[in-house]
Design brief:
By secondary structure, the chain is of the alpha/beta class. It has a single domain (3-209, 225-235), classed as Alpha-Beta Complex (2-enoyl-CoA Hydratase, Chain A, domain 1). The chain has helices at 33-48, 75-79, 90-99, 116-123, 140-143, 151-159, 161-170, 176-182, 191-206, 210-224, 231-242, 245-257, 264-267, 269-274; strands at residues 9-15, 18-23, 54-59, 64-66, 104-109, 112-114, 126-130, 135-137, 174-175, 187-189, 277-279, 285-287. The strands form three sheets. The protein has a six-stranded mixed β-sheet, sandwiched between helices. Helix 1 links the parallel strand 2 (18-23) and strand 3 (54-59).
Length: 298
């Protein structure tokens, strides 16, 4: 298959009841308008097939579950996308529909899940991470803009206001162990055990009665999901904030350092967003934060 025809989102049907959706957009699994359209098509299929009871999202790209949204594509490519069935932009539309999918959704996180990668994980029902290799973050504030995929609505309900603000405003990296401790993920497992654990759980769920799964999940949704109306404002805030001069200046520095390329910037977003250099009125560069931050450890 030629690169132009390479499917960046692959579906494997382990059985009629159990699907695996694999993200395969090397080198970083960055998601932009084209990848969102592929994800939307898969979601359409999941919604249309009443036999599906469980779906697992994983990655084929070493080191990255999903890096973040594509920040280098012209903004008009994102803002000009056709609205989804909910009437929202495809990003919040996808997150809302994934959360309300009748099938149980599971993410298996190996590598970095930042920005929209973290947001997809938060929209899923269950999150499992590699203890050694997973890194989760909402890095956006460190780059000068507001997260757009709904974490402000989901994180406080999932793990409380204080920890939500630490993740969102601190904008730092969380390894698998600390993500588990905070409740950011269900469990962090030894990397060698992650795939077998997720497959066994998905296989178990696939063997249960479909209607019982649907009714149980629906009642949990009533108790735990944010109202759909909370999702679009986050995307609107992202689009507004990313156009501000301060955000553009930060992005320019990060791109110069290696953003959206397989460099240490992408592998250590928490560190590099904190080392951003601001240019003052006299043309002098000064660090916004003097000390280097490191991945959060428990």
């Amino acid at each position: 298959m030629s690169p132009s025809n390479h499917a960046k989102v692959r579906v494997t049907r382990r059985s009629p009841a159990y699907w695996v959706v694999t993200l395969d957009n090397p080198p970083l699994n960055i998601v932009g308008p084209a990848e969102m359209r592929e994800l939307m098509k898969v979601l359409d299929q999941l919604e249309a097939d009443p036999k599906v009871k469980v779906v697992v999202f994983d990655s084929a790209v070493p080191g990255f579950f999903m890096a973040h949204y594509d920040l280098l594509k012209p903004l008009a490519e994102s803002t000009g996308m056709e609205l989804g069935p909910t009437g929202m932009h495809p990003v919040p539309d996808f997150m809302v529909r994934l959360a309300r999918l009748e099938a149980i959704s599971i993410v298996s996180i190996r590598g970095r899940a930042s920005g929209i990668g973290s947001e997809l994980a938060l929209a899923a029902d269950l999150r499992f991470a590699s203890r050694e290799k997973a890194i989760l973050s909402q890095f956006e504030l460190g780059a000068g803009f507001v997260p757009g995929g709904g974490p402000m609505a989901r994180l406080p309900r999932l793990l409380g206001r204080g920890r939500a603000l630490e993740i969102l405003i601190g904008a730092d990296d969380f390894d698998g162990a600390l993500a588990e401790r905070y409740g950011y993920v269900n469990r962090a497992l030894p990397d060698a055990e992650l795939d077998a654990f997720v497959d066994a759980l998905a296989t178990r769920i696939a063997g249960f009665d479909h209607q019982t799964i649907v009714e149980t999940k629906r009642l949990v949704d009533v108790a735990s999901l944010p109202p759909d109306a909370e999702m679009q404002p986050g995307w609107d805030a992202f689009i507004t904030s990313v156009q501000r001069p301060a955000a553009q200046a930060r992005l320019k520095v990060l791109v110069e350092k290696g953003l959206q390329r397989p460099t240490d910037v992408e592998r250590q977003l928490g560190r590099f967003t904190a080392e951003y250099l601001e240019v003052d009125a006299a043309g002098n560069k000064r660090p916004l934060i003097s000390s280097t931050t490191r991945s959060r450890k428990p």
